Automatic annotation (TrEMBL):
One of its GO terms (biological process) is L-tyrosine catabolic process. One of its GO terms (molecular function) is metal ion binding. This is 4-hydroxyphenylpyruvate dioxygenase. The lineage of its organism: Bacteria, Pseudomonadati, Bacteroidota, Flavobacteriia, Flavobacteriales. Keywords: Dioxygenase, Iron, Metal-binding, Oxidoreductase, Pyruvate, Repeat. The keyword DNA-binding does not apply. It comes from the Bacteria.
Length: 379
């Protein structure tokens, strides 16, 4: 397989991407989960999301329930089936809890559907207008890797809390936020030799261009390896790294994911903060568990990344990783899997000029993941 040269020089605006959609941002991420009520409580109590909207039996739904929670620009929809045997049940049976929908905010959902279908997309949902007293939301959708889908959301004529069919959800319990701002990127794991296929899908069907790639020399440890390419839309608001496994001496984290998720799917969401020390301190206090790196990581990290604004001590106490590219540096940390299956996790990222994804941390990070895999007997 051809391996592209790694480049950390990222264009300010990705001029190669033909932004015919264009995408205004991530509208929401919907997870299919076994128990939406308890999942919503977890994202509120542990992650500081705020209650926003609800749909279920009380709003006229017969077979499913959804809770919508929000923190700044990040909106999660947590959906569970109320009856047996439906599509949501099958999704949970196959994958466990996981991301079903990465919804993208557009100006024109009908046009987004027509344009992506014309370029070879597989239809998930034909355009449909949902209406209530607050106006109209237009949705359409296409398939991407695995059973994951993209829903295009047009909401310029809507003033309600989320979308028609949902009512405001305003419980007494509203824990304080933890300073999470927006989704920086969302990473997909795909199977052996499928990375290029899905990068081409984002290029051809959605007009994305490739930002950067890593080969297995960048991302390998003694035991495991993977390859990764980052696809971005034209205005850079949507970034989708795509990973595939590469040969290593033992089972890679991507293979472990594919095995437990039963195929391709979302591996992690990276959530941005303006103050990673405060955010991660709050998350740890609320019980969120992060991967730890050995103390030796901090002994020479400043030789690698140069001087930074933060004191090193709180970063090393919390296990926050540091990397630098031509444009600045970034701080990042990764949770352990947040679900029962060792599938999805969350990254917290603070960018201080850097536009890259933490390549310099991959080795330390993957060795930490391997320690966890070894404890699960899946290395
Ligand atoms: Fe990431």
């Amino acid at each position: 397989m051809a391996r592209d040269k790694t480049s950390l020089k990222l264009p300010k605006e990705n001029t190669e991407a033909a932004d015919f959609l264009p995408l205004l941002g991530t509208d929401y991420v919907e997870l299919y989960v076994g128990n939406a009520k308890q999942a919503a409580h977890y994202y509120m109590s542990a992650w500081g999301f705020q209650p926003l909207a609800y749909a279920g039996l009380e709003t006229g739904l017969k077979d499913k329930v959804s809770y919508v929670v929000q923190q700044d620009k990040i909106r999660l929809v947590l959906t569970s089936p109320l009856k047996s045997g439906g599509d949501i049940n099958k999704h949970i049976d196959a994958h466990g809890d996981g991301v079903k929908v990465i919804a993208l905010w557009v100006d024109d959902a009908r046009d987004s559907y027509v344009e992506t279908m014309k370029r070879g997309a597989e239809s998930y949902m034909e355009p449909r207008a949902l209406k209530d007293d607050n106006g109209e939301v237009v949705l359409s959708g296409i398939h991407t890797y695995g059973e994951t889908v993209h829903v295009f959301v047009e909401r310029k004529k809507y003033s309600g809390v989320f979308m028609p069919g949902f009512k405001e959800w305003n419980p007494f319990y509203k824990p304080s936020d933890v300073g999470l701002k927006y989704i920086d990127h969302m990473v997909g794991n795909v199977g052996w030799n499928e990375m290029d296929k899905w990068c081409q899908f984002y290029a051809k069907v959605m007009g994305f261009a490739q930002l950067v790639s890593f080969d297995d020399k960048d991302i390998s440890t003694e035991y495991t390896a993977l390859m990764s390419k980052v696809m971005s839309n034209g205005n850079g608001r949507i970034k989708f790294p795509i990973n595939e496994p590469a040969d290593g001496r033992k089972k890679s984290q991507i293979e472990e994911y594919i095995e437990f998720y039963n195929g391709a799917g979302v591996q992690h969401m990276a959530l941005a903060t303006d103050n990673i020390i405060e955010t991660v301190t709050a998350l740890k206090n609320r019980g969120v568990e992060f991967l730890s790196v050995p103390a030796s990581y901090y002994e020479n990290v400043l030789d690698r990344v140069g001087s930074i604004d933060e004191d090193l001590l709180p970063l090393s106490d919390l296990g926050i990783l540091i990397d630098r590219d031509d444009e600045g540096y970034l701080l990042q940390i990764f949770t352990k899997p947040i679900l029962d299956r060792p599938t999805m996790f969350i990254e917290i990222i603070q960018r201080k000029g850097a536009k890259s994804f933490g390549k310099g941390n991959f080795k330390a990070l993957f060795e930490a993941i391997e320690r966890e895999q070894a404890s699960r007997g899946t290395l």
